[in-house]
Design a protein that fits this description.
362 residues; alpha+beta; 2 domains; nine-stranded antiparallel beta sheet; 6 helices; 9 strands; DUF8094 domain-containing protein; signal; DUF8094
């Protein structure tokens, strides 16, 4: 568990950390404009102190829900894809009596990105300092559905090691523009970028959108991770002899993504992908869960010749401005198993109209 200082000390440390490192991850180097007396102020909707208070209040609920092994406590300050993932993590941690299965989201901040949205829902973003065991920075989105509701943890990703974050507007003086899911000022809209990325995760180099993305060369992103898992299983000893089949499906979540403008006219979009794998072998064979998480989620069910696993993947992408000709870049991801079963369900989390599937094992 991460050692926690007092609330006042943490808040002072977080604000100081944001001020010291904002230029690195979310700063803006040019002089700030000064509004004239008759010019309406359209700056950020939160102050840094308010943002830090949101982060701390959410962290307190996360800590309590984990300590009580009670996912229902999350509902006060967690929603959307983050709720699904955190609920699963708490259940797995309780089953295995091991809190290492719960993602740590530090309250010490390296940067904040606060949009100037004047309507709801509103979203703010933070980039955390590394965890105590030096895991990479996390980018976190907090969403407020209405003026009467609290900001809730909505999405988080772990930034890909070595990734270069784009610049954002100064969070205290200017604020960054929120970007709609269908915004066409970008090379591709935020909603379509997630659809394309889901196809790339499932299809790998065979995706029609492979050339539209620039994947990191020296670090693992979601595409590399999912495709490596598929290759390893398909190439495992006895899989072909058992007449094994491996089917992988991914689809972008129907929920609107959240996105914020970068200083170059591009945008960072955060959203969720639904994924699943269906593995089966000959009728008299059996398939054991491949991970401790899968074992915990199967809750003691007997092994059969089928294994079904669902994932909720939170992702962050940088989309360049329209006309730039630049590819979309993955910035971070969180790959989490949320369901495991010993038979294929009649309905899958990727059921849309006609989701595309990867080729079965050769």
């Amino acid at each position: 568990m991460i050692a926690r200082s007092t609330r006042a000390t943490r808040r002072a440390t977080a604000v100081a950390g944001v001020a010291a490192t904002a230029a690195l991850l979310a700063g803006c180097a040019q002089e700030l404009p000064t509004p004239s007396a008759d010019e309406p102020f359209t700056g950020p909707v939160l102050t840094l102190d308010q943002e830090v208070a949101v982060v701390e209040d959410v962290a307190a609920v996360l800590e309590e829900a984990e300590a009580e092994a009670s996912p229902k406590l999350l509902r006060e300050r967690v929603a959307g894809p983050a709720f699904e993932v955190r609920r699963s993590q708490i259940e797995v941690a309780a089953e295995l009596d091991d809190d290492s299965f719960v993602t740590r989201i530090p309250t010490d901040l390296a940067a904040t990105i606060i949009p100037t949205t004047e309507t709801w829902p509103r979203v703010s973003y933070t980039i955390t300092q590394p965890t105590e065991n030096l895991e990479a920075h996390r980018m976190v989105a907090y969403q407020q559905e209405s003026a009467r509701e609290n900001y809730k943890l909505w999405l988080w990703v772990q930034l890909i090691p070595g990734t270069t974050m784009p610049n954002f507007a100064d969070p205290e003086a200017i604020g960054s523009e929120a970007v709609a899911a269908d915004d066409d000022s970008l090379e591709v809209t935020p909603a379509e970028a997630l659809v394309q990325y889901a196809d790339l995760v499932a299809q790998g180099d065979d995706s029609d959108y492979a050339d539209a993305f620039e994947l990191p060369e020296d670090s693992q992103d979601l595409v590399k991770r999912v495709q490596a898992d598929a290759r390893n299983l398909r190439g495992s000893e006895g899989f072909e002899e058992a007449d094994g089949r491996y089917r992988l499906t991914y689809a972008a979540r129907d929920d609107d993504p959240v996105a914020v403008r970068t200083s170059d006219g591009g945008a960072v979009v955060m959203g969720a992908l639904d994924g699943n794998v269906r593995i089966d072998v000959e009728e008299d064979g059996s398939i054991a869960p491949f991970t401790q998480t899968q074992t915990a989620l199967m809750d003691g069910d007997d092994e059969t010749n089928e294994l079904y696993v669902e994932y909720t993947d939170q992702v962050a992408l940088y989309i360049p401005p329209a006309g730039s000709g630049e590819p979309v870049r993955p910035l971070g991801y969180s790959h989490d198993t949320v369901t495991a079963a010993n038979e294929f369900p009649s309905e899958r989390n990727t059921d849309r109209e006609e989701p595309e599937e990867s080729e079965e094992s050769e």
